[in-house]
Design goal:
By secondary structure, chain A is α/β, with parallel strands linked by helices. Chain A is built from 21 helices and 23 strands. In chain A, helix 15 links the parallel strand 14 and strand 15. In chain A, helix 10 runs parallel beside helix 15, helix 12 packs parallel to helix 13 and helix 18 packs across helix 21. Chain A is globular and about 90 Å long. Chain A starts with a strand and ends with a helix. By secondary structure, chain B is α/β, with parallel strands linked by helices. In chain B, the strands form 2 sheets. Chain B has an 8-stranded mixed beta sheet with strand order 2-1-3-4-6-5-11-7, sandwiched between helices. In chain B, strands 8-9-10 form a 3-stranded antiparallel beta sheet, with no helix packed on it. Chain B is globular. The chains are: A alpha/beta, B alpha/beta.
Chain lengths: 612, 339
C-alpha cells in the first residue's frame, strides 16, 4: 500500500481508557501540542465520577475528545476520525462515536477473554459485535511493546505499565504528523523536580510508539492539519474554570479590591477554587469552608468588609446556598456566585454537563428575590464573563449569578491573551459624601438613576450602620411598614432591571428578519453556531444570550423580526419558559436534550431544518 | 484619641427584649467593656463590627452603634470569619444563641474554633428557643418539658464548654447574665485574646424558660453553686471562700479548707494558660449538686490564629512569586506567538 500524507481541514480524536490509564493527560497533551502548532482547537473531557472505578468496566471508562482544525473550531466535534481504546470497555463505550471512515486504535493485549467478558462482549469479535468491523482497525500490542521498550529501564512493572499512554500518544503523533518536541518539554518541566527518573523512559516510550506507527503497515495514511489563520498575538490554551478564576482576579485588579473566595469543593467547580488558591501573589484569599453554606456566608462577610467576594459551586451546592443568596440580595452586597452546572437533580451526574440550573439561578429563593444572571459561552469566554459578573456586582451592589457548565469549565480552547489595559476600570459606589452633625449614613438611600445604594465599608469613621436579613427602610432601620416593604421589593427588582442599560445589546448573525431565529445561551454556543452556519438557510438567523437577567434591552425588538423562535438548550426548556414569561407575544419552539452530554451539531442541524 | 464611653456604643434603637430578659444585662456589660478595651488597645469605634445570626439575642447588633450585620440563622460564625479574614484590622464581636450556634450553626461554630479565627463570640445560653416561642434547644436539660417536648426531651444537651475545649479552642469563659462586673472582665479578656474567644453567658428567658439558671443565679445560692476562676488564684468558693477544689486521684473533689486535714496549700491554683486541656475540661464539666459550676475565664492559651496565618502566607507568597499583576499571570506558563 502506498503511504500518503493527506491534508485535512479538521480532525476529531477521542482517547478512551480506564480511569487510571492517563487518558485525560494524553488528550490534553495532544491538544496542547496542537494549540502550539497553531491549530484551531476545542476539547471535551468526559470522565466518570469515580476516581478509579472497577478495572475494565464500562462505568470506569474515561474519555477525552480533541477537535483540531485549520480554522477556528467551535465544538469538540460530534463524531471522531480516530478512536483510541485502551481496553474492551473503552471500545464498547465509545464505538458509537466513530465516523464511518474512522480509524480505531486499540491495545490488542488488553483484549483477552476476561477483559472482553468484563466489558460485556459475548463473542470473540468485539468489532463485529459493535458493528464497526469495517473501520480501519489498528490492533497494536501496546502493553507488550511498552514493556519491551522499557525492559532495561530499571522501572518496576507497575511503573512501566503507566507509560502505555505515552506509547499511544507517540502513535497518534505519527498518524497526525505532530512533532514530539512539545511532549519532551512538558515531561521535562513536569517531572524535573520530583521524578526526574521518569523523564527519559517516557520519552523513549513516546518515540518508540511514534516509530512503531511509522513501521507497521496497518497505518495506511497519515494526516496533516495545517495551522489556522489566527489573529496575530500571544496565545495560550485555557480551560473554562481557569479562565473564570483569572477573570475574577482581573476584576479584583481593576476594582482595587482584594479577591476573597469562600468555597467548598464540588465537581465540576473545584478547579476554580484550586486555581485561585495558587494565586495568593495577587492578594487573593481563598477559604475552603466547612460546607457550601459557610462558603457563601464567609464570602458575604468578606463583601461587607470591603473585598470582591466570590463563592463557586455546582448545582447541589447552589441549593444549599439559597438562603444566603437571599441575604446577599436583601443586604445589597456585591457578590459573585459561580455555578458550574452538572447533571441533576440531587447528586445526578456529577461529571456530566447540563444547563438545568437556570430555573434555580433565576428563581430558587424565598421571597421576591431578583438577581442578575449571566452565562459564559465558551472556555475562554469564562474570563470576560467572570470579569463582567464582578463588575456588575460591584457597581450595582448586588449578588450576580454566573452560570458556567461542566462542558466549558473542563473544556479548553486557544485564547488570544488580552491586555489588562483594554479592560475598563471597576468603580464601586463607595460613600464619599459628608454627613452633617447628627446626620447618619443611610445604607439604603439609592442613586435615583440606577437605584444602587452606597457602600460604606467598616473601619470608616462616622459611617457606622447595621444591615441584615430583616426588611429595613432607606435609613437602614427595621421596618414592618406594609408600604415600605412593597417599595423596597420594587426598588430591588427595578435596580436589577436597570442593569439592562449597562450591558451589550443582543447580536444577531444572519438575516435581519426571517422565518426562524435560533436562540441559545451558555455553553451550547459553539454547537448551535456551527449548526446554524452549516444549515446556511437564508430565512434563519442566530442569536446567543450571554445575559439572561436582565435580558438585553433590544430582545423584544429582535424577536419581533422573526416568524418564530427556536430555543436550543441542554434541559427540558427552562430558558424557553423564561422567555415565554418575559416576552409572551412570540411563538417559541424548543429543542432540548438532557443526557448529560453536549449537543451534536448534526442533531441541531436537523432540528433547525425541522422548524422551517 | 477621644475617650469612648458606654454611651458611644449604644445605638438610638430601644432594645426590644422582654423586660427582665438576661440579654439586657449582657448588652450593658458589652457596652461598658468596649470603651475599656478601646482604651487598652487604642481602638477607634469604627473598628468594631458586631455580627449575629437569628434569635432573640441576635438582635443585639441593632442596639450597638457600631458597624453591624444581622445575618441568617446559624451562619453568624461564617459571616464573622469572612469579615475577619477579609479585613483583619476589624474587631469582630458576635452574638448568638444556643440554638443558633449549637444546632443550626453547630458546624460553623466548631470550625471557627478549630481554625482559631480571631473573633469574640458571645454565646447566649438560655436553654430554649425564645423567638419561636418555647421549643427545646441543644442545651435544654434532659427531660425538659417544652412546646415540642410536652412529655420531656429524650436527648442529652451539649455542654458548650466541653464542645469548645474538645475542638481545641483557645479561649473559653462562662458567666451568668447577672454577673455584670465579671462579664465586663471576661469580655475584656476575650478582646485581649488573639484567636477565637467563646464566652458562654447563661441567660434567663423570663417568658419561656424562667429560672433555668436559678440554682446558680439566686443570690442566696450563688456563692455555693458557682466558683469564679481567676488566673493564678486558688480555686475557692462558698460565702466565706471556705471551700475549694483539689485533685483526688484523677478526679476533682470539693473539700472544706481546714477540715479533714486539707489546708489552703492543697487547693488547686487556676491556670487558664495551661496548654493541656485535662484539668480545664474537668472544670468545664462540673455541675451541681456535687460541684459548683465554673465561671470566669477557664481557658486562655496562645496559638496561631487563622487570620494571621492567611496574612503571613499571602506576604510570603507575594515576596517570592514572579507574578505581580494579572498581565503577568496571563503570560505565565505555556504560551505561543501567532505572527
Amino acid at each position: 500500500m502506498q503511504h500518503k500524507v493527506i491534508d485535512v481541514s479538521d480532525v476529531v480524536i477521542r482517547f478512551a481508557g480506564d480511569s487510571g490509564d492517563g487518558m485525560q493527560l494524553t488528550g490534553s497533551l495532544f491538544a496542547d501540542m496542537s494549540a502550539i502548532y497553531g491549530n484551531g482547537l476545542s476539547t471535551f473531557p468526559d470522565y466518570p465520577a469515580e476516581i478509579r472505578a472497577p478495572h475494565g468496566t464500562i462505568s470506569g471508562v474515561s474519555g477525552f475528545q480533541v477537535h483540531i482544525g485549520s480554522e477556528k473550531v467551535n465544538t469538540p466535534g460530534d463524531y471522531c476520525d480516530m478512536l483510541v481504546a485502551m481496553n474492551p470497555a473503552a471500545l464498547k463505550a465509545n464505538a458509537k462515536w466513530c465516523k464511518r471512515e474512522a480509524m480505531i486504535l486499540v491495545d490488542a493485549d488488553a483484549f483477552d477473554d476476561k477483559s472482553m467478558e468484563r466489558a460485556g462482549f459475548k463473542t470473540g469479535n468485539p468489532f463485529e459485535e459493535l458493528g464497526v468491523e469495517d473501520r480501519v482497525i489498528i490492533a497494536a500490542p501496546i502493553t507488550t511493546l511498552t514493556q519491551e521498550s522499557l525492559k532495561d529501564s530499571g522501572m518496576d512493572q507497575k511503573a512501566i505499565l503507566k507509560c502505555k499512554n505515552m506509547f499511544t500518544l507517540g502513535m497518534a503523533c505519527y498518524i497526525y504528523s505532530r512533532p514530539l518536541d512539545y511532549v519532551h518539554t512538558y515531561l521535562e518541566k513536569r517531572f524535573a523536580k520530583k521524578h526526574p527518573e521518569v523523564i527519559l523512559p517516557n520519552m523513549k516510550v513516546l518515540q518508540d510508539g511514534f516509530n512503531y506507527a511509522a513501521a507497521i503497515q496497518a497505518v495506511p495514511n497519515t494526516y496533516k492539519v495545517e495551522s489556522a489563520d489566527l489573529e496575530p498575538g500571544l496565545y495560550r490554551n485555557i480551560t473554562g474554570n481557569q479562565a473564570t478564576a483569572w477573570g475574577l482576579l482581573a476584576a479584583s485588579e481593576k476594582s482595587g479590591l482584594p479577591l476573597f473566595c469562600g468555597s467548598y469543593p464540588i465537581t465540576p467547580a473545584t478547579a476554580i477554587l484550586e486555581e485561585l488558591a495558587l494565586h495568593k501573589s495577587l492578594g487573593c484569599k481563598t477559604l475552603q469552608a466547612e460546607d457550601e453554606i459557610a462558603g457563601i456566608c464567609t464570602a458575604i462577610g468578606a463583601s461587607f468588609a470591603g473585598n470582591l467576594a466570590v463563592t463557586t459551586t455546582s448545582g447541589p451546592g447552589l441549593s444549599l446556598k439559597s438562603e444566603a443568596l437571599g441575604l446577599a440580595v436583601m443586604t445589597e452586597l456585591p457578590l459573585v456566585i459561580v455555578d458550574v452546572q452538572r447533571g441533576g437533580p440531587s447528586t445526578g451526574l456529577p461529571t456530566k454537563t447540563e444547563q438545568t440550573d437556570l430555573d434555580q439561578a433565576l428563581f430558587g429563593r424565598n421571597g421576591e428575590c431578583p438577581m442578575p444572571v449571566i452565562a459564559a459561552h465558551s472556555p475562554a469566554h469564562c474570563f470576560d464573563a467572570a470579569f463582567t459578573a464582578a463588575k456588575l456586582a460591584l457597581e450595582h451592589m448586588t449578588p450576580v449569578m454566573l452560570l458556567s457548565e461542566g462542558f466549558i469549565g473542563n473544556g479548553s480552547e486557544p485564547w488570544k491573551i488580552p491586555a489588562m489595559a483594554d479592560y475598563p476600570e471597576i468603580k464601586p459606589p463607595f460613600f464619599h459624601g459628608a454627613l452633617h452633625d447628627g446626620e447618619r449614613f443611610r445604607p439604603y438611600e439609592r442613586d435615583p438613576e440606577t437605584l444602587v445604594r452606597r457602600w460604606a465599608i467598616p473601619g470608616q469613621k462616622g459611617l457606622e450602620h447595621r444591615i441584615g436579613g430583616l426588611e429595613k427602610n432607606h435609613d437602614g432601620v427595621l421596618s414592618t411598614d406594609p408600604q415600605n416593604h412593597e417599595t423596597m421589593v420594587r426598588e430591588r427588582a427595578e435596580k436589577v432591571e436597570r442593569i439592562a442599560n449597562c450591558i451589550p445589546e443582543l447580536q444577531v448573525e444572519g438575516p435581519e428578519s426571517g422565518k426562524l431565529l435560533v436562540v441559545s445561551w451558555g455553553g451550547t454556543y459553539g454547537h448551535v453556531l456551527s449548526a446554524f452556519r452549516q444549515c446556511g438557510e437564508p430565512e434563519v438567523a442566530f442569536a446567543h444570550f450571554d445575559f439572561i437577567k436582565p435580558l438585553p434591552r433590544n430582545t423584544r425588538e429582535v424577536f419581533a423580526r422573526y416568524g418564530k423562535i427556536l430555543v436550543c438548550e441542554l434541559n427540558s426548556g427552562q430558558f424557553a419558559g423564561y422567555l415565554r414569561a418575559e416576552l409572551p407575544e412570540f411563538r417559541y419552539e424548543k429543542y432540548n436534550k438532557v443526557q448529560g452530554q453536549p449537543f451534536l451539531v448534526s442533531e441541531l442541524v436537523e432540528a433547525i431544518k425541522n422548524n422551517l | 484619641m477621644a475617650v469612648l464611653t458606654a454611651k458611644d456604643f449604644k445605638s438610638d434603637q430601644l432594645a426590644r427584649w422582654c423586660p427582665g430578659c438576661g440579654d439586657h444585662a449582657v448588652l450593658a456589660a458589652l457596652t461598658r467593656a468596649l470603651p475599656k478595651v478601646s482604651q487598652t488597645l487604642g481602638y477607634e469605634k469604627e473598628r468594631y463590627v458586631v455580627v449575629s445570626g437569628i434569635g432573640c439575642s441576635s438582635r443585639l447588633p441593632y442596639y450597638m452603634d457600631t458597624y453591624g450585620f444581622h445575618s441568617i440563622h446559624g451562619r453568624a460564625t461564617a459571616i464573622s470569619t469572612g469579615i475577619k479574614v477579609a479585613n483583619p484590622t476589624l474587631t469582630v464581636w458576635q452574638a448568638c444563641g444556643d440554638g443558633d450556634a449549637l444546632a443550626i450553626g453547630g458546624n460553623h461554630f466548631i470550625h471557627a474554633i478549630r481554625r482559631n479565627i480571631d473573633i469574640n463570640v458571645i454565646l447566649f445560653n438560655n436553654q430554649i428557643y425564645g423567638l419561636t416561642k418555647g421549643q427545646y434547644s441543644p442545651t435544654s436539660k434532659f427531660g425538659a418539658i417544652t412546646k415540642t417536648s410536652p412529655y420531656g426531651t429524650v436527648e442529652h444537651p451539649f455542654n458548650p464548654g466541653s464542645l469548645v475545649l474538645g475542638a481545641k479552642g483557645t479561649f473559653f469563659a462562662r458567666s451568668l447574665d447577672v454577673e455584670l462586673a465579671l462579664n465586663e472582665e471576661i469580655m475584656t479578656a476575650a478582646a485581649l485574646h488573639d484567636g477565637c474567644s467563646v464566652m458562654e453567658m447563661l441567660t434567663n428567658c423570663v417568658i419561656f424558660n424562667d429560672g433555668a439558671h436559678k440554682s446558680l443565679s439566686d443570690p442566696a445560692l450563688r456563692a455555693d453553686a458557682t466558683i469564679v476562676l481567676r488566673q493564678g488564684e486558688k480555686m475557692l468558693f462558698g460565702k466565706n471562700k471556705e471551700k475549694g477544689l483539689i485533685f483526688d486521684g484523677h478526679k476533682l473533689r470539693v473539700v472544706h479548707v481546714g477540715e479533714g486535714g486539707f489546708t489552703l496549700d492543697d487547693i488547686l491554683v487556676h491556670d487558664a494558660h495551661a496548654d493541656n486541656i485535662g484539668l480545664q475540661m474537668a472544670l468545664v464539666d462540673m455541675k451541681g449538686p456535687d460541684f459548683p459550676v465554673a465561671l470566669g475565664v477557664i481557658r486562655d492559651v496562645k496559638d496561631i490564629t487563622y487570620d494571621d496565618g492567611v496574612r503571613d502566607q499571602l506576604k510570603d507568597v507575594m515576596s517570592k512569586s514572579k507574578i505581580h499583576c494579572v498581565d503577568d499571570l496571563l503570560r505565565s506558563g505555556s504560551t505561543w506567538e501567532v505572527k
